Amino acid sequence: MKKINIIISLLLISIVYNTNQAYAYKGTISNFDNLENQNFPDKQVIIPPKKPTRQAQPGILSKESLIYKHLNIYSPTDNSIDFNTVNNIGLDRSVIDTDDRSVVTDINKAPFNQIVKLVCTYPSGNSYDGTGVIVSRDSVLTAAHNLYKNDEKNTFATKCEVAAGLTSKTTYNKAISTGTKFLIPEKWISPLIQYDSDIGMIKLDKPIGEITGTMGITHLIYPNQSIETAGYPQFLKNNTMYYSKGNVKSSTPVKFYHDLDTWSGQSGSPIWGSGNLLIGLHTAGVNEEKQENPLDNQYNKAVRITERNYDYILYWMNALPGRVYGNSKEQISISTSGQKIWSNLQLSLEKTNTNNLIGKVYYAKYYYDLPDGNRYISLYTKDDSLLGYINEKYTINIKPNSYSKEITITKAGYNIFEDTFFNSKKSMSDSYIGKKYLAKEIYTLGDGRKYYSLYDNNNKLFGYMNVNATI
Predict the structure, then answer these.
(1) Which of 23, 56, 248, 265 has its CA at a distance of 20 to 30 angstroms from the CA of residue 383?
(2) Which SS3 state, helix, strand or coil, does residue 223 take?
């Protein structure tokens, strides 16, 4: 049976399906503004896992660490809790029948090295722990309710601390990072909390996914599928990862029921099937009060990696928080032919190239320093539409140089432009031969053309003209 599951998993990896990121962009809310509507290929393979590319950075938790402080606040004083008799439930916890969890003894082995403990703090000063999984070099997937809480006055967390490879109460053998940028589906909070959208992402300030590797993702599950999970429960050995194995008991289009044993602290724990492919996140336990669906009173619950959630994840993974480029509407001009303009920051979908764009002027709003070692800028047209992303070195900034000299228009056949995009014609030079103007500034475009900003005797802007039409 195990061999069959592996074969099925390999087949799933080769399956492609249509995706549409438009709703992922429009349906995402975050605590930072500079997100752009990236596009991706119409066909997407299941997101594959990635191996580590850098060495581990082990260390000791600082006493100022959120995880260290939370450990001291929530450390149990004894081992009096009998999980085999606890049949209740909170939001994210339930042991089904007997407690079958076991300590993960080799946290350096995939997928355990990609599972992280997280502690998030809120403006109120309260902090909460959870579990997450690394899905890209700087992205941790977890439950939305770890990142945005209605009982914290409907606010995002201010900061989450993430540790990979916790080896004891105070040490780790992989890496630690923090994140202050969070993304969740708008549906999670609007109009009311909706647990079928309990999924979110932390963007980390360090790319620790390069140290841990990343877990692969699929949107497909099948009935009675054998599944596994691991996470960091409270009230057992502190900062210790526990593992459980079980089955998918039932599923709906947006969630599935499972019998994996979990407890507080395991919200956001990854649930994977054969091939170690992520199929969902643990989000809720057995309900104590009688529910309309009896399964809610029998099993734990997980949010599925639906096709829509898959698209959210893909968008979020590549929704890099850009830094403002200059004044956020810095004008640049394309200077090099034969270069690609990309539709996304994954650099996986070419939108166009620069062959017919040399000398064209665009706004540059944000810049991104990507893993290939280059800086990319987002290009916007005059009407504020995103054109795409280009390597900065194939552009020039067209900030004007001061000139302040009188010139005379001497040649016919030259356009007089209204603005510094140099594409809105105001008039032609033919009607102004012999006229004198003050050239205050000079602009140089990516194709080498130079333009004056011309002012009349009343110091009113007349327009922009190629220097070759004047003396």
Answers:
(1) 23
(2) coil
